[in-house]
Amino acid sequence: MRSLLILIFCLGMTTVHAQKMSWRKHAKLAEKQFEKNNFQDAAINFEAAWQKKPKKTEYLYQAAECYSKIKNYRKAAECYKPIKEENEDFMLPGLKHCRMLKMDGQYDEASRAFVYFINSYEGADKDIVTEIVQDEIRGCELAMVMLEKESNQVTFNHLSSNVNSKAADFAPVPFSDDILYYTSNMVGATKMYFSQRNGEVWSRSRVPKNFPDIFASHYGNGTFAPDNKSFYYTQCDQIDATGRMVYGCEIFVTHRDESGWSAPKKLNNGINKTGTTATQPFVVHKDDKEFLYFVSDRIGGQGGTDIWFSTRDLSSEKLDFGRPRNCGKQINSIADELTPYFDLDENTMYFSSNGRVNIGGFDILKSKNTGDNEWTKPKNIGLPFNSNADDYYYRKHSINGGYFVSNRKFELEKSTYDNDDIYSFSTPVETMIATGRVIDKKTSKQMKNVWVALYEVSIGGSVRLLENKASENGTYEFGLLPGKNYRVEAHRDNYEPNGWEFSTKEKMQKVFEKNITIGEVRLVDNVSGSRIRNIDGKYNNPQPTIFDESAGYENNSGSMISSKLVPNSNVDKNVSTSPTRTDIVGEFNVVYKIQLMAVSSFNANETRFQMPKNFGRLETEYLKDKKLIRVLLSKFSTEEEAKQILNKMKSTSRDYNSALIVRYENGVRIDPWAK
Hints:
By secondary structure, the protein is α+β, with helices and mostly antiparallel strands. The strands form eight sheets. The protein has a six-stranded antiparallel beta sheet with strand order 28-27-24-25-32-31, with no helix packed on it. A six-stranded mixed beta sheet has the order 33-35-36-34-37-38, covered by helices on one side. The longest helix is centred in the N-terminal third of the chain and has 24 residues, at 126-149. It is elongated, with a radius of gyration of 31 Å.
């Protein structure tokens, strides 16, 4: 009770003090607060100055501008309203009044206000303003239609206070299913943080360990390269009123090795152009190139901030990104485009814009890539991802889930529009299954103790491993998603793998059933006629599928990062696995290979694998029990030839100090001969 009385007294004293202040003092105080980016208090004092001096409408306009900056849309609309008829002294207050109504979700009233405004507007730029207003009206109409048809199929989750602070939290970067990196302004300066999820609970945010010391005042807006070995991010001189990093920004990169993250390195002058901003990078690997998408306000764009891109060869050891290219008029508008994200599976760019037919301020759009910098007309992804507020930083992490950022009001967890928060989302998955049995080719009986793998097949023929599980009774069943191409493959020690491919693009079919027949591998010694065995008594285990350059396996947390495979028919000439058919069957054959190393994930574009390609062909062998990949250099007719090559490699780089020579007979690895 006493505390309450004290609070009431203090508030009363504040009110009395405010009443005693003249309009001049309110105005001077507001100007000082504005200079310090204290827009909340500046708005209050500008409005108080106007109330004491109603003829000074410039103070009311300033109050409206401040309320707009802190995204108090309703108060901004109230302040613009008395001066909406005036255009000579102020920048389109009528248009801004309409927009604040729209951003506050008052679509019907906003639509009428837009019509009234444009009918009475007589400015010299009326043609341009008319076009803008027509899009705004269409946006209001679109929102009202969407609200009537809104579905509850998408589930949103406002991340807890351990992630979302009272400041701006944005730029989510999922590292695994349970680890999220992001950017926050919670300490005044914008920094990187991460949180780890245990079940449904996110841990308290922490600064990443072993991350390079960064002395810039603001940094974040990051993205991992697909191999998780490089991290691109932004450093900025200043941030906007919402905490977003958009002024005086440059893009840097840091690389990870066994010792941690390297010192930050600024990208070349083509990316970071003097006098302009480069921010919000997103990196994707496609067609043996690294694509860097980013946002910039440089000359040569369509207007405002645009989305640009630059590429470099993945085989290059240098950060030699080429000259940036604007993504063109299909992506970029005369207003602002932000937060690019390229979904490689969909071949689609997701981004945000405030220059389209939007239901809010910034809406999330998508556009499909149809060729070299060719894009389809952007499509608004609609409710519930977009709202009457600002929505951006759309990031998928799984086939049916991901993250985005919004300043929207959200149930009981967020009652204002003032700051950006991070949300997770999930969409329902249609139930489809692939099922069948594994049959022994010789006996026609159902086999036991086999492995069955499920792959997703891309349009280009490359394949991504989704699941690989043991089946004791020889049956299999996998859950599927609609609109995908799949391959199911069965394998067992000493058996030739076999499988089948199918598509779920026809949604009428729910069950895809087929038995898989596999036959035993027969290895014959032409001299004795007996089967060749390894030293441990087991027959050779040919690998079912070939790994491509971007293959990867589980990270330290056990989550699949990037497991991409290509079928034998689509293998790169420098990458192979498994003995060929002529190695396995027929004439007695002895060859030698250099085992370079065993790794948990293999990427043939890594620097350490470039030199060996000059001496032979890279092959891989997958060890199921250890979840490791042997990387070998193949093949040499004599042991002496292999030794000469190995010595050359060791003299050049310490990467090959542990390499050894292995003998193969008829494709069978003979371990006692390993050197």
